[in-house]
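Researcher: Quick test of sequence recovery. Tokens follow.
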């Protein structure tokens, strides 16, 4: 199978069958053996199509309104390869795309050539700076952009879009069980910068991929959201008094525990689905974490998994997960804004159920990896208004355009003693 035909099959699975990007690639490469360089080229073309999908599918549909989905994908590949990647045989890409056209349709070569001669992908009749323009320019659904502009202002929304179009910074958690901060920066000062005010973390600035760096190969540090370290520092983790975690999606939170102490004591980990439970058990096995009990239960059943109130309860419900817009080229296809109210209702439920299992003077920590006031600040303000026995210790909203940026939020709440 030629590379561009395999790329077409992969894109069909992603766009029309809702298969995640990484899984679609993995399945294709498992079925079709090929050189590493060819795999890289296919991955690059597929990723490029997805990163420019909204504008390219728009101009294709404007020119070829009744083209079937396979024809659209073939044209997406031909256009992406011609304008950006240039890894496939362009004549083969054009020939395949032309095979889907009707008699009288503009030939693919004639459609592409103006874009090779400086014609802009975003049509000239679309006002520069409009929500539609920004949607095409940054491959983000306009409804999401409108929401950000309303909640955070146009300037912040624009900065977020620009940041999401670039690779995310690689922030790592130093494994202090293996190496001190001082020794880490003495040995690797050329490739890592310390993050001011947050010990145990570093920003990777080296050349090449972090995965190939000796620090990663030796397990001296692990990529981890900066928010995890900050919120756990504020949460006053006390393994002797008990820690509970409720999570609705696989995440790397336990890696911070590994970096703090190989045996954190008693931890109850409640996963809302089998995928999250399996991922958590894999971490326990890989890093040798002891005394962690993993349960599978929904937010409404948290009570059935906790035998007594804990000192620290970490709540990580599902969310719009807009942080993935920067990390995954196909996430813009996955999220349906119409589901936001359902997500918010579940976030409120998870927070409420967990709060009832926090001991007096203990901590309730809330985390979502998204940029949305409705799922972060508003949720916490409403909870505090309804639960006067909790006080806010610290909360923080992260923007991707900040130096160590991401789209995430955490809040640390303390449960006051009754006689306070």
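Model:
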């Amino acid at each position: 199978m030629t590379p561009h035909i395999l790329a077409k099959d992969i894109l069909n699975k992603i766009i029309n069958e809702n298969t995640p990007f990484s899984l679609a690639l993995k399945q294709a490469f498992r079925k079709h053996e090929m050189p590493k360089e060819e795999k890289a080229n296919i991955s690059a073309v597929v990723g490029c199509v997805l990163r420019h999908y909204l504008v390219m599918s728009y101009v294709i549909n404007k020119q070829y309104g009744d083209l079937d989905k396979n024809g659209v994908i073939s044209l997406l590949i031909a256009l992406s390869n011609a304008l950006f990647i240039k890894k496939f045989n362009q004549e083969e890409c054009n020939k395949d795309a032309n095979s889907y056209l009707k008699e009288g349709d503009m030939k693919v070569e004639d459609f592409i050539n103006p874009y090779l001669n400086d014609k802009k992908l975003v049509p000239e009749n679309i006002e520069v700076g409009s929500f539609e323009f920004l949607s095409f320019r940054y491959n983000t659904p306009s409804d999401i952009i409108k929401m950000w502009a309303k909640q955070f202002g146009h300037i912040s929304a624009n900065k977020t879009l620009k940041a999401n179009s670039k690779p995310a910074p690689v922030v790592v958690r130093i494994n202090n069980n293996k190496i001190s901060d001082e020794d880490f920066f003495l040995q690797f000062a050329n490739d890592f910068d310390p993050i001011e005010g947050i010990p145990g973390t570093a920003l990777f600035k080296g050349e090449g991929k972090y995965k190939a760096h000796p620090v990663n190969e030796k397990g001296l540090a692990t990529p981890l959201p900066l928010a995890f370290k900050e919120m756990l520092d504020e949460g006053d983790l006390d393994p002797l008094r008990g820690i509970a975690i409720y999570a609705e999606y696989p995440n790397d939170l336990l890696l911070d525990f590994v970096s703090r102490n190989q045996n954190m004591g008693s931890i109850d980990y409640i996963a809302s689905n089998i995928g999250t439970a399996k991922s958590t058990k894999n971490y326990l096995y890989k890093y040798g974490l002891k005394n962690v009990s993993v349960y599978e239960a929904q937010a409404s059943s948290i009570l059935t998994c906790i035998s007594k109130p804990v000192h620290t309860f970490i709540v990580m419900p599902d969310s719009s997960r807009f942080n993935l817009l920067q990390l995954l080229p196909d996430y813009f296809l996955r999220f349906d804004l119409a589901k936001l109210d359902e997500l918010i209702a579940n976030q409120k439920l998870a927070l409420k159920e967990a709060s009832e299992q926090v001991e007096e003077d203990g901590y309730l920590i809330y985390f979502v990896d998204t940029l949305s006031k409705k799922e972060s600040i508003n949720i916490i303000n409403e909870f505090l208004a309804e639960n006067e026995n909790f006080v806010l210790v610290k909360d923080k909203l992260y923007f991707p355009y900040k130096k160590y940026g991401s789209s995430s939020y955490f809040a640390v709440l303390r449960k006051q003693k009754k006689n306070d």
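The chain has a mean pLDDT of 93.
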